[in-house]
Amino acid sequence: MAEQTNISHSLKFPHINECESIGRESHTVVTDMDGTLLVGRSSFPYFALVAFEVGGILRLFFLLLSSPIAGILYYFISESAGIRVLIFATLVGMKESDIESVSRAVLPKFYSDDIHPETWRVFSLCGRKCVLTANPRIMVEAFLKEYLGADMVIGTEISSFKGRATGFVSDVGVLVGKNKAEALQKEFGDKLPDIGLGDRKTDFPFMKLCKESYIVPAEEGIQPLSPDKLPKPIVFHDGRLVQKPTPIIALLIILWIPIGFLLACLRIAAGALLPMPIVYHAFWSLGVRVAIKGTPPPPAKKSLGQMGVLFVCSHRTLLDPIFLSTALARPIPAVTYSLSRLSEVISPIKTVRLNRDRAKDSEMIKKLLQEGDLVICPEGTTCREPFLLRFSALFAELTDELVPVAMSNRMSMFHGTTARGWKGMDPFYFFMNPSPAYEVTFLNKLPRDLTCGGGKSSHEVANYIQRMIAATLSYECTSFTRKDKYRALAGNDGNVVEKPRVAADKVMGC
Questions:
Q1: Nearest Cα to 176, choosing from 44, 2, 33?
Q2: What is the pLDDT of residue 494?
Q3: How many whole angstroms separate alpha carbon 17 and alpha carbon 35?
Q4: Class of domain 2-229
Q5: For 299, how many CA atoms within 13 A lie in the half-sphere containing its CB?
Q6: Is 247-506 a domain of CATH 3.40.1130?
C-alpha cells in the first residue's frame, strides 16, 4: 500500500531518465541516498555491517531482532521512527572512533557496489554535489566525499557522551520529510540547488525547493553501476563479511558461525597435524578446494650443493605459503613480515620473521636458501581486490633461482584477512567459509638473463615478476605499499599513528 502511494505521488515529478546531464558543470545537485543514489532502498545491510564489525555477532543478532520492529514503525508510524530503532540497536554504546573506522575502511566497498547508474549520470556531471540522507552522517560521509566527490553531506547527527554513541539522534532529529527541506534551506539559504533527486514521498519537501526535480522510482532489473566507473578505485578495504548482509544473509551468518568455527578448527588441525603429502586430500574431504596449475620445479638436492628455489608469490592471505606447500606436497619454509603468535603456533610449516633490517634479512634469507626451498610474498601485505601491490626488490638480489607463483582464492562468507582486527583469527575466518578455495599457479622459472645475475637490476626483476603474475591473474599492478594500506584502513603505518589519505593516482597499468 505504501509503495502504491509513493508511485502515485512520484507522478508529480519527471523520471530521472528525462534529466539532461549535458552542460551541468555550473549546477548544484542534491540527492537522497537509499533508493536514489543507491539502487538498494534499505539501509539495514549497512547498519548490519557496522553492528558486526564493531560489536560482533551478538550486536548483529540484537539488530536483527530489532529490524521487524523498525519495519513495523517504518510502514505504520513513520520512516523516522523506523530509522531511530536501527540507529539505536546498531550504535548504542559504540565508540565514535570505531564507527568512523568502519565507515572509512568497510562500508565504501559495499556502497560502491550499489550505485544507481542514472543518478550517477546526473550526479557526476554537476559542478557541486550534495547528498541529503536520513542515514547517520558519520556512516556515509567518508565514502561520499572520498569516492564520489561529494562537496557536502547532510545527514542525521547522532548524539554521544564521552566519545560513545548514546543510540539517540541529536535535537534536529532524523532527516526525513520536512526536516530534509529545513536542513537544505539552512545550508543553502536563498540560493537553492538546481537539481533535486529523490525516490519517495518523504523526499518531496526538499525536491520542491529545487529548480528542477526528478524521481528515481524503484524498478525491477536495475543493475548497479560497475565500480570501475567511479572516479576512485577501491584498492583497499577491510571487514570480515564478503556479502552485503541483508536480513536473510545476516541470519544465515549468525546460524553458521558456531558450526563454521568448529569446522575451521577441524580443517586447521588437519593441515597442522597430518603429513603434508596427504593434506591436499584431507582438505578436499573437508570441503577446502585446492586447484594446481603449471609445473613446479623438483626440490633442491643438497647433496649436489644446489641452493633452494625462492618461490615468489602474490599475497592474498597469510595462508598462501601453506597452500603452496599443499600444492607441492612438502613443507616449504616461509619468511613473514608480520604474523600473530597464534598463527605461528598452529602453522604446519616453518615461519621466519623478517626484521625489516636489510642487512640482517638478506643474511637470513641466504642462509635459508642454502638449506632448501623458500617462499616469500614481496608485497609485504595482503590485498583483496584484483590488484598487486609493489614488490619489494630485496629478494631479487639474493638469488637467481626464482619461480613466480600466482595465488588466488575464493571466499563466500568471510574474508581471511584484516588490517584493523586481531590477525590471529585470520586463518579461522578463512576456514569458516563453507567451501573456501585456493588456486596455485606455478609460472616458469625466471631465465638467468632476466635475473640480477644476468645484468638486470633488482627493481627490474621485481617489476617483471609483478607484471607476470598480474597478467596471469588478470590483475592490475600498483605502486601501493604496506604503509599505504594501513594508512588507508587503520590510520597508521604500523608504528606511527597518523591519518593521511592514499592518492588514487598510484594505480597504474602493467
A1: 33
A2: 52
A3: 15
A4: alpha beta
A5: 12
A6: yes
